[in-house]
Automatic annotation (TrEMBL):
It comes from Streptomyces spirodelae. Residues 356-408 are annotated as: Disordered. Residues 87-195 form the Integral membrane protein YccS N-terminal domain. PANTHER family: MULTIDRUG RESISTANCE PROTEIN MDTO (PTHR30509:SF9), P-HYDROXYBENZOIC ACID EFFLUX PUMP SUBUNIT-RELATED (PTHR30509). Belongs to the YccS/YhfK family. Keywords: Cell membrane, Membrane, Transmembrane, Transmembrane helix. The chain crosses the membrane at residues 39-67, 129-148, 154-173, 492-512, 540-559, 571-589. It is found in: Cell membrane. It comes from the Bacteria. The keyword Manganese does not apply. Residues 458-581 form the Integral membrane bound transporter domain. This is FUSC family protein. It is a multi-pass membrane protein.
Amino acid sequence: MIAAPLPWLRALKETARSGLAVERTSLTPLTALRGACGVGLVVGLALLIGTPQLAVSSAFGAFASGIATFQRSWRPRPVLALAASSGLAISTFVGYLLVGLPWAFILLLALWAFMAGMAWGVGPTSGVVAAFNIAVMLITVHLPTSVLGALSSAALIATGGVVQAGLIVLFPVRPWGERRDTLADALAAVADYARRLRHDPMASFDPEPLIEARSAAAVTPRQARRRPRQLHGYRAMAERFRPVLASLADPVVGGAPMVGPERDRVRELLAAAATVLDATARAIRRGDRVRLPDQALDVLRVPESGPVLSGPARRAALRLIALTDDAVEAAQEPVEVTRGGVLARVTWHVADREGRRRDFPDRPPVVDASLDGPYGPDPEEVAAELATARETQQAGRKAAGGKHTPAAGHALARERHLHMPTLAGLVPVALRAFRRELHWKSPILRHALRVSAVVALGYLLGNALPPAHGYWVPLTAVMVLRPDFSRTYERGIGRAVGTLVGVAIAGTVMALAGPGPYLSAALAVVSVGFLYLLLSTGYVIASVCTGAYVVFLLGILGADWYQTAYERAGLTALGGVLAMLSYALFPAWHTPLLRDRLADWLAATGRYAMAVLDAFAHPAEHAPRQVREALLDTRAARQDWEQTLSRAEAEPVRQHGRVSRLSRRSAGEAQSALVTMGRACMLLEPHLPGAHPSFRPDPWAADFSAALASDLATAVPAVRRSEPLEWPSVHEALARWWEQADHPPPVALRTAELLTDALDDLARAVTPKPRPRS
């Protein structure tokens, strides 16, 4: 694994501890109550007008639909409910037609299990919902007694989904709340970053909130027409804030000394920007208007006298002031400014047709002389600011004759959104994901084969054992198995313990109270309500509620269904053991993938660096989209690396073969080096020149970019093969650049030096250490 691999006993101990852990998390009682009411309505109506078998079938449909709506997905909840119930209804009907032909049903079950395993390639939500549908289908196919009954059961299962979807539409609980929280979390994370930069200019930043905010911003065309105005534009604004804040605070690239009046001015700007971001995040989370203290706005103005910034720090400060103005303009509604003191008062600022507010900071058309510093104004910076001012004025004139929102002249007000495909449009996406995962080293393909074999074997084993209802063996196996070791064993242990407790509690209640169908249905609804409420607290708690729910629900059918509750607990334990044993025999270890993921991250970060440097080398040909796409690729590669590393740390295996394994220390040093490399590129982003004739191309940036591309072509395969890394072309290009550089050195050269240092750190981290001779 990593430096000291965990033995099997220790790995099992760690996964058992994680599987039995109970997390403290925020609960959503109203949403849980709504889901439980959906199950209760369906069960009650089915008992009144139909048979107990139909009531149980319909309850499973509403139950599965409710579970789907609680998954982490940005797709509309009614769509998730309808999709889950439709899939379960179809699988139940087709399964009943073949359940009388054992071998045909086993082949169908294996095929469905394989497709459910491959669904993980589309996303976690698809994989979880598909696995859950197979588990419920294993119960529902045994309930009907005729083809007509199977058709009625399928219709009632679909009706359960319709009821859940209808309740979501009729009784919405905090609409757009999750998207609001995600966007607010991203803005709050950037605000916290600004505050930490005041004391630590090298403070780290986790891009996960920005990644989540980007996922949440993807909407369908119908959602785009209906989403609140506060969800427009702020995500892109948060993305633009981060590099400006880091560049302003950095003493090497920004140039502001660590002590003195310039650093004090930097700290004031960072604190004021954090205040604006926090106020914006709070307004988005609550759906209120933005409330800003006047002290923060006073700081975010070009000072007429006092401490000044010069060089790159001045440009970063001006862009930060403009961005905070954007944050206020993006509200597209009156902004409340609070005045401190004994007699506090509130003033309201309303944007005009061009998105400007009186007394708010504005982009200066000409640079204030007080910001020039001891060496006078930089001609290139003055040209950049004049070009930006002209472009802003032209954009305002173009927008002046059209239809306006309060800030229609501003770029943030444009109606653009990230596209989310509809369910029909998701089909080609799923097919591409399937083709992408069809190779032997893919953890998704190995998971799909494992699930298919284990479910078929579990069904045969359950039918061969004396207890009735042996389908609990494959049911447990399909719910436990996941594409990685840690989650499979965590869920296996949590499922076994939770089901044992839940079945014991529910079985005891059923044996002592002997409830009839209606009281059993009521107890089942209470159990599913607790399940929906506590679903995010841990898998063991969810298994307790699920076990009790199934026992109470099957109690509607009569005594012979719930009296075998303790046998079901044994079959559940057997299914969990079978799932964990299958992973040990046919694993998909992530430890051997570490070097591949690290090489992918290096390649993506290298492309990001080259895109930023090329923008300096060829400003007229620079397209902001190129830098943005390279940054997104870097984040995705980093996310894959971190996910693989966290899973590898829990695996009880070493990496075999001629490829050297990464120790825990080497992996940490390599990650730190690549994070530093990405940070250096980010520091350069706020200083990218515009496509204006006054900007002179920097040929040395192009020379360094070409050298980096040349060395990366050999370095990426070297990381995969565990070979030494060398950067000769990069060092030569950096030396040539220093020889031709003026004083003070340009910001791109300072960034190139940071990049070179990070590449050297990476080479020291991943190069195999020579083994000592015995």
